[in-house]
Amino acid sequence: MEAVFSAVFLLCFALSTGVHGDSLTVLQAPEFVAFQKGDWPVSGEKIPDLVALTMGFSVQEDLAWPGLKAGPLFQRPRANVLVVVRGVDSLALPQNVASYPLENPVPFTMDSVAETVHSLFAEDTPVVLQLAPSEERLYMLGKANAVFEDLPVTLQQIRARLSQDGSVLASLPLNSLSRNAEADLLFLSEVQVLHDITALRHRHLAKDHSPDLYSLELSGLEELSRLYGQDSPQYRDATAILASVLQKFGQDVYALYGNSSVVEVVTVKTFEAPLTRKSRSILESKQISNPGSPYNLAYKYNFHYAVIFNIVLWLMIALALAVIAIAYNLWNMDPGTSYILFHIPASIYVVRKIRASIAEGEQLEKPIVTPCSAIANMRAGCESRGKASAAAAICSVPDGDVGDGVASSGTSSETAVQKCGP
User: Fold this and answer.
1) What would the pLDDT profile of 70-81 be if each residue is shown by its tens digit?
2) How do beta strands 98-103 and 137-142 pair?
3) 3-state secondary structure of 143
4) How open is the CA angle 108-111-112, to the nearest 5 degrees?
5) Element (H or E) spanning 11, and its range?
6) Which UniProt keywords apply (predicted)?
7) What CA–CA distance (Å, rounded) separates 251 from 249?
8) 103 neighbors 43 (Cβ within 8 angstroms)
9) Of 330 and 407, more confident
């Protein structure tokens, strides 16, 4: 009985792994983009947000996924390359940084990331390339028009490129693959595009500060699986060829950007249609987003609001603390000893002190001149000159006249000076 239960459990486990075998593999990543190894599943619709975070951009909703750690603020990779392989759930890519299971594999685009790159680095004209060779779907922006001018994008151009010199047909072991079969040529055309992208980008490499974005979708394996089956030798040979080509493609791109690029590979057996559920409001009221709405709806904030709010908040706090610290130090500053505002040499300070003390001493030693003292001085001067008559005239002035006031003393002084003259 236990053996039966074990067999049923193993069968269910095998079926579950076969259904959920899609994966996200990080082939190359710089040291400052830290991917943690683990079995944390990532949703297919979150792949664009994951790419945006690896390039250092903000996203509208937080990605609650522990596989990617926060990196440095002022470092971003120079390029991000995402390759989506349809028709296979996993590839043998032994040289990788990390690999994660992919759940809910719905179709996604990198248009939001491309718009962010173009809006932030419009003056630097970064390279933005989105290509699906099997569908002949191409989107180029910035320098991509000049860099990949010679890149074959249509199936007719790619097949013509396979017949030229330097094509991948001369270096790949085709084995069971045929050069004349339609599905085989589609797969080989996608391999040729991978080779030409690295060759053309190396020729027009420009060292600028704008990050580049590549998004490639390969569906050649899906066509081979539909035509030959997954157990066919063509499918197995194509899977082995694509794994080796992608491994080399990741190494070339990583070296091309100076070990500062992220290369991811998403393998999806088939894309699922996104599950949506339509609901009807009970009140059947339309949501009006204008400010004058009668339903008092909140304003629609931009997703940069939180970042700008934190920058302004902490800047104001830092300025307030700086003002408080400066005011406190100025209030408690001693101008005589502080060398911050009054930086004068010690010798000049000593000279000024000596001059101030001498001036103060002269004022203290200088006698106070009164009318009586002035007349006494004049009498002494007249006597020393030998003019006794003038001295007697001056000395005969009564003392009461001296005390009459400043005017009388001034007149007596002038008279004394005139009499004592030559």
Assistant:
1) 888 788 899 999
2) unpaired
3) coil
4) 100
5) helix 2-19
6) Receptor
7) 5
8) yes
9) 330
